[in-house]
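It is worth pausing here to work through a concrete case rather than discussing structure prediction in the abstract. The textbook approach is simple: state the sequence, then state the predicted structure, then interpret. We follow exactly that order.
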Amino acid sequence: MIVERLGFTVLASGTENPDDKPIANVIFVHGLRGHPRQTWESTEPQVAEKRSSSPFTKWLKRPHSDEANSPESKKKQDQESSVFWPADLLPMKIPKAQIMTYGHDADVIGGPLQGANKDSITQRGRNLMIQLEREIGNTSPIIFVVHSLGGIIVKEGLQWSKTRLQEQFRVLHQRTRHIIFMGTPHQGSDLASMGKLVANFAAVALVDSNKALLDSLTVESEVLDRISDEFSSMLHSNDFTVHSFQEGRGMSGLKGFSGKAS
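Step two, the predicted structure:
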């Protein structure tokens, strides 16, 4: 299955008849330096990589969006032996749900001769909701499954949609029933600070980066504090339920981060 790098890709419709309506919409949103397929895909890594690569090293080695979206990369997606569980496994558990994955430009460091995306978290949340309203195609409840930065974007997007004058955006917030957070840095992340350091090195090499976004993801970020406060208000109003999962594997091979959860 080919998954587009940007925007929505429908992985399962949840219906056999075009006139039917799915029981729910399950929407996957990836995180920083992530990919709408690769983030949720399991492939057998090389033994050497298992032994030597830290999570941060793997984060740096992820392909730029242009590479991940190239025809060769798309062809490789179907040729590799892998399990893309939102498409391969989840439809067997909830066959009547529409399952979608959303891709956004999460490359904080640009490619050669290419600028990095400068959108803020607020802009990314708004873009998510605008595209969702256009692409969802039904009025069924919504369940978000989010990783890392994707969780922050969804939180901001829900707050944005809740306060809109246009009803078509407010109903997206009203239809959201559950959010499943995976490794979302609600209070910021030390990895964002390390990412800023990498961005400074990139600047020396004349490679563009989105340092403002990285600033927003650091510990004690005012942006994250605001988003958390607004999201807490939605939780206290019982707007939806949340389930959180924290990555607990300790990091190794990176001075200052050894033993910390990734």
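Step three, interpretation. Residues 46-52, 110-116, 190-209, 251-262 have pLDDT under 50 and may be disordered. The longest strand covers residues 97-103.
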